[in-house]
Write a structure and sequence with these properties.
- The chain is of the alpha+beta class and about 220 residues long.
- The protein has one domain: Sandwich (Jelly Rolls).
- It is built from 3 helices and 13 strands; from the N terminus they run αββαβββαββββββββ.
- It has a 7-stranded antiparallel beta sheet, with helices on one face.
- β4 and β5 form a beta hairpin.
- The chain is globular, with a radius of gyration of 16 Å.
- The two termini are about 30 Å apart.
- The structure holds N-(carboxycarbonyl)-S-(naphthalen-2-ylmethyl)-L-cysteine and fe (iii) ion.
- The site of fe (iii) ion (FE) has 3 residues, from loops.
- The site of fe (iii) ion has 3 residues, from loops.
- Pfam families: 2OG-FeII_Oxy_2 (PF13532).
- Keywords: Dioxygenase, Iron, Metal-binding, Oxidoreductase.
- Its EC number is 1.14.11.33.
Length: about 220
Amino acid sequence: MDDLFADHDASLGRSEVLAEGARVLRGRAHARAAEFLELIDGVSAQAPFRNMTTPGGYPMSVDMSCCGRLGWVSDERGYRYSVTDPQTGRAWPAMPELLRGFAIACAAEAGFPDFSPDACLINRYRPGAKLSLHQDRDEPDLSAPIVSVSLGLPATFLFGGLRRSDPQQRVGLVHGDVVVWGGPARLRFHAVLPVREGEHPLTGRYRINLTFRKASRT
Ligand code: MD3
Ligand code: FE
């Protein structure tokens, strides 16, 4: 049995379809979470967490880092993917193979068999941090899905429609949950409500979310 899914029995059948193209794989990252967090520590030792600035000039409340060939960057000039970390002037740390393989397996399970991520954005939320309503549309190949892994403190995720004003469904995401969204759900608006105060045995006062993306055309 594929040991990337060592907790398969515990999470068997706990897959929810949020909309066509969007699925939550409950608990799928639970068994490997401690290893994943070690790998994230390694990445952030080379590419430290930082509060990026929005194009409007405001600091984001979420601390971010990246790994993979490309990293997501925001500043007064706008949003884009870059092969260098503007803070260090160096390439982003490599995407750890264990993480990349896990994301590919989750995408395949959700119906996207050819996922080849080259960017992983690491979002770190302290209590009070949030992500406002947005679409992920900086990637040139929108046929590729995005895979999200939630670790640490829980959060409430808002899942909207293709227009900013569309109604939103609330989805609770806890430690170990994975969300895969692509196809007709790829451009849906979404947000994360302010993370509530709490303490998690593996992350302390943080929620960590990984998003695996294909950020280049080829
Ligand atoms: C999108 N991150 O980094 S990912 C982002 O939890 C981002 O840090 C969030 O949005 C985070 O751009 C959310 C989870 C997610 C789940 C379901 C979705 C995003 C989705 C459904 C449709 C569109
Ligand atoms: Fe997003």
